[in-house]
Design brief:
The structure holds two protein chains of two kinds. By secondary structure, chain A is of the alpha/beta class. Chain A contains seven helices and ten strands. Chain A has a single domain, classed as Rossmann fold, CATH 3.40.50. Chain A has a six-stranded mixed sheet with strand order 6-7-8-3-9-10, sandwiched between helices. Chain A is globular, with a radius of gyration of 18 Å. In chain B, helix 2 packs antiparallel against helix 15. Classes of the chains: A alpha/beta, B alpha+beta. Bound molecules: adenosine-5'-triphosphate and magnesium ion. Adenosine-5'-triphosphate binds next to strand 1, strand 2 and helix 1 of chain A.
């Protein structure tokens, strides 16, 4: 199944906090296909973050099966899962999660260093920033960047290793609509030009309007899954 | 070559909370400085002790008759002392080898009497060996060929109320058990500054002592070395050289009290350094742990990006190394002026204590010095690095245990 990147089947995830058990996911089924620009929506507590954690190999399901790129994640060791994240997955987090003591360029470079990229890692990192029109920000530390700029650098860092799948948990939650638009256009550019697949959770109607597919969760289950034409789909707008 | 980012990451992290880094570095620095100071003090303390023992006529090494160690009997004589003396004097690294023989004697002048341990010496060798007799206050020291003359300490002179050129009446118990009498003319009076020592000095020529006691030869050969740091090595060498007829002793055996003092001083100082080390390690560990807790989220993000546990540990340990280097620098900066002062000017314990510092015949200097040198740099580095690395182990393990899911949710890591 070349075109199915994620297959989640009857996934359950329970959290045990003291005496209480929270059933965050209660038998969820979801497939993510190559080229999806998928938005996960749903009320707070419906399990969006939990689902992204499972797909992102950060956590393991209590039961059911999560296959990413055809591999059953529950069969992978901690280390193998870290490798999978490093080589094939990209993450963008809600809060600004750049390493504060490294410059924008170094943040991107750091992921490449972790991957074992040698001499050319600086050039490659620079190329990634330039591809996303962030070239001039390279020398700045995160505290010298605006929230929107930080989030764009975070996307650059997430895609530096050319992952096939990029996961983002409420990536625009802390951005105004201008910055949110720029970010979304950047992500869509990456999908279109670099064949990346995006899955992001959101509460933001603007983000939903950009999505090519919208999955709605409620109480840990998928309650609707609709393919749609995003409003901006035929705009010529790109980050360039 | 490009510095790896993980290195930059570690070093720049120190700049993140400058105040904490500064405090930690000072903490490590103070610990380092204490360890350095104590060690510098001990190094010179041991050296000075050895020096004082040697200068007081006890030497670094001694060739003693077999069995002397057990009985400490003055009557024992070396077998073939001429050969032993020759062997010792011809050895490289030997500064002086001086033959000695001892006997207890009663000195009398008029109605006054005092007992002493009389020392028979080879005058030219003794003058080189024994610093104390350099302090001849009146008259002169013994010369080769002297007969029936003596040099005494001024405390003896005072007790007997004698002056230079007076004749002392001397009684010794001879080898056959009879009393032997003689008259000794005082040719020199020594004032070392210590009453205890001045009450014990009574030197005569070895030949006089042989005649008086009826015991021939030397009871010991006392040796000082060019390089006191080679004592044990030279003892072994000398022991091979003389081949078992007599035994070779070091200052620790000649002055067992001093040897024990030196060992217990060292043990106490090491214990003290150890306690300081533990305190510093705990302090740094708690500061580091707080720093790590504040950065849990950062570690969660790094792990979500695919950083492995061992790489996180490496990062935290690298940070510790950077902190340790700063701490070592702080320690050296703190201790160097202090050591410079105490190395050149010394610390005067004399005025505080009063009196003199003679312990079992060894005259100590009032002023104690420390010993600075290049050894301090590797020493400071290893103390600082070892303690920061130990202190960072738990925080590193803690960082490694970060749950990467906490990067996505805003929940506490
Ligand atoms: N580590 C955890 N321990 C205990 N309960 C948890 C944990 N993580 C999530 N939960 C619970 O699981 C449920 C789903 O949480 P999740 O964070 O996935 O919701 P969400 O859809 O992302 O919500 P939001 O829109 O507010 O981010 C919630 O009831 C939450 O309290
Ligand atoms: Mg969430």
């Amino acid at each position: 199944m070349e075109n199915t990147l994620v297959e989640a089947t009857d996934v359950k995830k329970d959290f045990y906090t003291g005496k209480i058990t929270v059933n965050a996911l209660r038998g969820l089924d979801l497939n993510v296909h190559k080229g999806d620009f998928l938005s996960i929506v749903g009320p707070s507590g419906s399990g969006k973050t939990t689902l992204l954690n499972l797909i992102g190999a950060l956590d393991v399901a209590t039961s059911g099966e999560v296959k990413v790129f055809g591999k059953d994640l529950s069969s992978l060791s901690r280390r193998k899962r870290a490798d999978l994240r490093l080589k094939s997955l990209g993450f963008v987090f809600q809060a600004y999660n750049l390493v504060p003591v490294l410059t924008a360029l170094e943040n991107v470079e750091f992921v490449l260093e972790l991957q074992g990229v040698g001499k050319e890692r600086r050039e490659r990192a620079q190329a990634v920033l330039e591809d996303l029109s962030l070239g001039e920000l390279g020398d700045r530390r995160p505290n010298e960047l605006s929230g929107g700029q930080q989030q764009r650098v975070a996307v650059a860092r997430a895609v530096a290793s050319r992952p096939r799948l990029v996961l983002a948990d409420e990536p625009t939650a802390n951005l105004d609509s201008e910055n949110a638009k720029t970010l979304l256009e950047m992500m869509r550019y990456l999908r279109d030009e670099h064949d990346m697949t995006f899955v992001f959770s959101t509460h933001d109607p603007l983000v939903v309007s950009y999505a090519s597919r919208v999955v709605t969760l409620r109480d840990g289950r998928v309650v609707s899954d609709e393919q749609k034409n995003s409003i901006a789909e035929d705009d010529e707008a790109t980050v360039h | 070559m490009r510095v790896s980012l993980i290195m930059k990451f570690a070093v720049r992290t120190l700049g993140r909370s400058k105040r904490r880094t500064l405090l930690s570095a000072i903490g490590i620095g103070v610990g380092c400085a204490v360890a350095l100071f104590i060690t510098a003090f001990m190094r010179s303390g041991t050296e000075m002790r050895i020096q004082a023992i040697a200068d007081s006529g006890f030497g670094h090494l001694r060739i003693a008759p077999s069995g002397w160690m057990k009985s400490r009997e003055n009557k024992l004589r070396l077998s073939d002392w001429h050969a032993e003396l020759q062997a010792a004097r011809s050895m490289d690294g030997v500064r002086v080898a001086a033959p000695h023989a001892r006997t207890t004697a009663l000195l009398a002048f008029g109605t006054r009497v005092t007992g002493v341990e009389m020392l028979g010496v080879d005058p030219p060798a003794e003058e080189k060996l024994n610093r104390l007799i350099g302090a001849v206050q009146e008259g002169r020291y013994l010369r080769p060929g002297d007969r029936d003359v003596t040099v005494i300490g001024n405390a003896i002179a005072e007790r007997l109320e004698v002056e230079l050129e007076d004749d002392l009446f001397l009684t010794v118990v001879c080898e056959d058990g009879n009393m032997e009498y003689a008259m000794l003319r005082i040719v020199g009076i020594v004032n070392t500054g210590s009453r205890d020592i001045d009450a014990s000095i009574c030197h005569v020529a070895l030949g006089d002592l042989e005649r008086l006691t009826g015991l021939h030869g030397a009871g010991e050969i006392t040796i000082t070395l060019e390089d006191p740091s080679k004592i044990d090595q030279m003892a072994a060498q000398l022991s091979d050289q003389i081949g078992g007829r007599n035994e070779v002793l070091t200052w620790r055996e000649i002055q067992p009290g001093q040897g024990a003092d030196s060992a217990s001083d060292k043990a106490f100082m090491n214990l003290f350094i150890g306690i300081v080390g533990v305190v510093v390690i705990l302090g740094i560990a708690s500061a580091q742990l707080t720093a790590i807790l504040e950065r849990k989220r950062e570690f969660a993000v790094l792990m979500a990006l695919g950083m492995k546990g061992f790489q996180i540990v490496r990062l935290v340990l690298l940070e510790a190394v950077a902190l340790g280097l700063l701490g070592a620098a702080a320690g050296l900066a703190l201790v160097t002026p202090l050591l410079y002062y105490t190395d050149t000017k010394g610390i005067d314990f004399g005025s505080a204590l009063g009196g003199d510092m003679a312990v079992s015949g060894v005259l100590f200097d009032f002023v104690m010095y420390t010993q600075m040198g290049l050894w301090m740099i590797p020493y400071a580095l290893s103390v600082a690095l070892i303690s920061t690395l130990i202190a960072a182990l738990y925080p590193a393990w803690f960082a490694m245990k970060t749950d990467p899911t906490s990067a996505l949710s805003l929940r506490e890591a």
